[in-house]
Amino acid sequence: MMPAPQQNKDFPYWLLIVLAVGGYFFWRVLTDDLYTQVLQTLSKGIWITVFVTLVGFTLAATMGLGLALMSTSRFIVVRQTARLYTEIVRGVPIIVLLLYVAFVLAPGMVALFNWITGTLGFDPIRNRDFSLLWRAIIALTIGYSAFIAEVFRAGLQSIEKGQIEAAEALGLSPWRRFRHIVFPQAFRRILPPLGNDFIAMVKDSSLVSVLGVLDVTQAGKITAAGNFRYFESYNVLALIYLTMTIGLSLGLRRLEHHLREKTIWGLVRIRWGGRLRPDCIGSTQRRLLMTNPLRTSWDTPFELPPFDLIEDEHFAPALDAALIDARAAIAAICDGSDPTFANTIEALSLADAPLEKALSPFFAMAGADSNPVREELMRDFSPMLSAYSSEITANTALFARIETLWNTRDDLDLTDEQARVLLLTRRNFVRSGAQLEGFAADRLADVKQRLSVLGTRFTQNLLADERSWFMPLDDVAGLPDFLIAAAKSAGQEKDGGGPIVTLSRSLIVPFLQFSLRRDLREKAYEAWTARGANGGETDNRALAGEILSLRAERANLLGYDSFADYKLETQMAKTPDAVRALLMQVWEPAKASAEADALVLQAMMHNDNESGPLEPWDWRYYSEKRRAAEHDLNEAELKPYLQLDRMIEAAFSCSNRLFGLEFTPIDAPLYHADCRAWDVTRDGKHMAVFIGDYFARSSKRSGAWCSAMRSQQKLAGDIRAQVINVCNFAKPPTGQKALLSYDDARTLFHEFGHALHQMLSDVTYELISGTSVARDFVELPSQLYEHWLEVPEVLEEFATHADTGEPMPRDLLDSMLGAATYDMGFSTVEYVASAMVDLEFHAGEDAPADPMQKQAEILEDIGMPRPIRMRHATPHFAHVFAGDGYSSGYYSYMWSEVMDADAFQAFEENGGPFDPDMAKKLETHILSAGGSEDAAELYLKFRGAMPDATALLKGRGLAG
Ligand SMILES: [Zn+2]
Fold first, then answer.
1. What local confidence, expressed as pLDDT, does residue 851 receive?
2. 117 and 88 belong to one structural domain
3. Phi/psi class of residue 957: alpha, beta or left (left: φ > 0; alpha: ψ in -120 to 50)?
4. Residues 215 and 246 in one domain
5. What is d(CA 173, CA 159) in angstroms, rounded to the nearest whole number?
6. Do residues 39 and 173 share a domain?
7. Averaged over 642-654, what is the pLDDT?
8. Each residue of 767-787: b (16+ CB within 10 Å) or e?
9. Domain ends where: 767, 794, 816?
10. Can you tell me where the transmembrane regions are (predicted)?
11. Per mean pLDDT, which range of 11-20, 245-254, 268-277 is the poorest?
12. What is the pLDDT of residue 827?
């Protein structure tokens, strides 16, 4: 075997000498007839040499890989067999092996072959039918496979365990781990020794001449023996070998160098945050991209994504290509002339356009209509995107340009909006660690990447738990028809079977309200609240702990006392103390109210001959009974009046009266047959596209949300928003009308309020468009919009009976509105408990060592009433753990409610719910303004004063 080449940096004088001597002999070959003649004769043997080497090496490499895998097997017999083979073969010289194979093994194989085929009635073959050429190849294969096996084994074992664990944590399958992590690195380590073995084999193939195989050595021997010109013959022979081996050796070094320094592994490395050069896309990928609908211009109605053309396999190549485009755009910014607002800040906001184009349809589909492929893509994309955004904020050249602009901002003649965008952009860089250097900068990047991976896993575990649990519904005692129908529909969708209860809120909540079977309620409730804490692979408890400690580390690296301090800096609330003060102001009245309610409910339960204390799975059941008794309202009687289609019309109608919006259905391909789309106009001018995706299905994540596939902006032209409202309402059986609970109808109005924030947006820069505002401000438009559902004239018009078309009877309407504050103690307690746990998880300098224990302590401290549990316990608290969005920010719903109560109060004080002046103020200062000013400023302009919690307590019926 050749030793591994030394890494030396000397000038290769040896190569000059070789070239000089080689050149001399080449010249002789060209000019001297004798040399020419020898070369001609020998050249016939070269092909045999090349053939023997290539075939032998390919077979040996295949066998070697098999042996290497055997030697890492879990089974001792397999391991030891590989070991035995390797040791024996390596101990025998190649020439002995050749003779042994040729004259012992080969005849043995012939005999064995004849014995087998003889029993089948075939004629025997003769020894000489087994050519010496193949005997030689087999011998070389056996000999080299043992050496190559060792090369492979060392290469595979050199990959650190940590990397494989990291890949496991990313959720990569074993095959993808091998392909993306182990193989590329092992290959780079294996290549040099493997190449050396190949060169050695070129030389060792000369040994086949002892068997009389006419390779180049044998040809040389024959020539020399025939013409007696040993000097010339062996010179030519040596020259041929040297040409082959030195040529290979140089080629091999180039390849190694290439693998180390260049980017042919770019497409693999990019997944782990490396840079990718545009030229490393192969022609195949380029061809694929030309037909990829995510990379072409969209000739669709309103430039909606062409969902009918988009296939799952389009996403990954489109994202790869979009990242290249985006990176090229960033590089161009950094290479540009002196920084200006246009060539830096505006260019930066345009750089992401190709990414948004590829990702916005993907995220819409991954959230609302997922499948295993999309889940896997999600796992792949999240570290890529997090790496990309870290790369931008870690780009020192880019940050230097922003700093230059920031330091000269007073001389730049910026508009208010531009000044705000510059401030936010710079703050974003600083908060991402742009001012950090060295270890701290590297560590921060690692922490962020890991957090993004953990967040994705948290969501997926939750989805898996939600999807896997269901309970066959055998006993329907007490259940209203709509629930039985929905349970049938869920069973149909699941596996075509009978009715089932799933963990979808729209099924489980009414089940808990109505089922007479206390044991089944307990079973369902425990399953519902155990999401993410069921042990095994989908358990989220350890993930939560890791997420909290990484967040604390992140805040400390950036110089904040706690993650809550870091997080709240950009919020309207600004400090943890302000949040705590707000929550505790609400907590005590809510708890007192809930405790009084608990006594009433427990007494009702004892009347039912159920003993013991009131349990969490009893609350909704007795609360519903009490509601029916005291407010003469039951959900089942109410439900036929709340038709989905009519409630959508109601939401549209209110926005028409307030802001003049009109809605026309659009016929465009969407990502799921249940989606509907409308063209939103005002005075004939296109304002936005609104998409409603209302029904629950197993491919949809739970909850309700509003997302934008495109946000309004003017920098890249007059771009209008494309907004989606996603809900999880129970789908009616075919042919029947979809009915909502009052809660569902509120959700519909809530999400539509978010949609208005996007659709009415009127700013130049995407960074501050629509819902891009402080987290504790973003729920103001949505929660405020819920108030219009409570306006009696709205319900009188739109709450009509599904079968008769009759409007809701006045007394039912009154009791429904009267019941709106019913059980507010309960819902406020379950909410505030979650918000407190979220805040305290993040408010300490160190993260809690055991979040579950910390959660118990916090609840103990605030005196959580026994029959109520947190609305979201830690293992399924997706708001807080699925991403950073609501971490130490869950309080913001209540913060916004303080404002929405106060803001709606403003309408009532000034001409009523549809007062045009107030509507105008709302649009100008809040709905169209996005993040163009600080939230507190915007609110002051709208209302003329800051709100306090009094209106909230009154609104919740907790004012005492
Ligand atoms: Zn919301």
1. 95
2. yes
3. left
4. yes
5. 17
6. yes
7. 97
8. bbbbbbbbbbbbbbbbbbbbb
9. 767
10. 12-30, 45-70, 91-112, 132-152, 234-252
11. 268-277
12. 92
> How confident is the model over 469-492, as pLDDT tens digits?
999 998 888 999 989 999 999 999
- Residue where the block lists tokens 């073995």: 197
Is residue 751 part of the annotated active site? The answer reads yes
Distance CA 886, CA 647 (A): 29
Cα(779) to centroid(ligand 1), Å: 5
Looking at residue 743, its amino acid is: D
Tell whether 488 is covered by a domain.
no
273 DSSP 8-state letter: T
Residue 262 has pLDDT above 50, yes or no: no
Mean pLDDT over 296-324 rounds to 90
868-895 residue pLDDT tens: 999 999 999 998 998 887 899 999 888 8
Domain boundary at 262, 292, 315, which? 262
Determine the pLDDT at residue 266: 30
One domain, residues 295 and 219: no
Residues whose CB falls within 8 Å of the CB of residue 695, separated by 6 or more in sequence, listed in order: 674, 727, 728, 729, 730, 731, 738
pLDDT digits (tens, 9 = 90+) for 695-715: 999 899 888 999 999 999 999
CA of 780 to the centre of ligand 1 (A): 8
- The domain that holds 692 is classified in CATH as 3.40.390.10
Q: For residue 375, what are its two tokens?
A: 């889940």
Would you state the pLDDT for residue 421?
Answer: 96
Which residues share a beta bridge with 663?
A: 680
**Residue 258 shares a structural domain with residue 352:** no
CA 755–ligand 1 middle distance (angstroms): 10
Its domain, for residue 92, covers 13-262
Strand partners for 810: none
CA of 886 to the centre of ligand 1 (A): 11
CATH code at 306? Answer: 1.10.1370.40
Q: In 712-798, which residue ranges form alpha helices assigned H by DSSP? A: 742-759, 775-789, 792-798
Identify the active-site residue in 232, 553, 751, 923. 751
How many angstroms is it from 889 CA to the middle of ligand 1? 13
> Do 258 and 275 have their domain in common?
no
* Percentage of the chain lying above the pLDDT 70 cut: 92
Instruction: Kindly indicate the confidence band of residue 759, based on its pLDDT and cuts at 50, 70 and 90.
Output: very high
Q: Report yes or no on 291 lying in a domain.
A: yes
What contacts 739, CB < 8 A, 6 or more positions away?
482, 639, 640, 642, 643, 644, 732, 802
- Give the C-alpha separation, 942 to 939, whole Å: 5
Distance, in Å, from the CA atom of 430 to the CA atom of 378, rounded to the nearest integer, reads: 28
Q: How far apart are alpha carbons 384 and 812 in whole angstroms?
A: 54
- Residue 164: per-residue pLDDT: 59
675 plus 732 within the same structural domain: yes
The answer to whether 417 and 763 have CB atoms below 8 angstroms apart is: yes
Q: What is the pLDDT of residues 387-418, one digit of tens each?
A: 888 789 888 899 999 999 999 999 999 999 99
DSSP state of 681: E
Here the CATH number for the domain that contains residue 94 is: 1.10.3720.10
Mean pLDDT rounded to a whole number for the chain = 86
Which pLDDT belongs to residue 270?
A: 29
Answer yes or no: do 109 and 239 share one domain. Answer: yes
Give the residue-averaged pLDDT of 373-394: 86
Residue 401 counted as domain residue = yes
Q: How far is CA 372 from CA 316, 361, 377, 464, 876, in A?
A: 14, 17, 9, 11, 21
Phi, psi values for residue 214, rounded to 5°? -85, 65
For 574, list phi and psi in degrees, rounded to 5. Answer: 75, -40
Identify any residues that bridge with 686 across adjacent strands, giving them in sequence order.
681
Domain-located, residue 297: yes
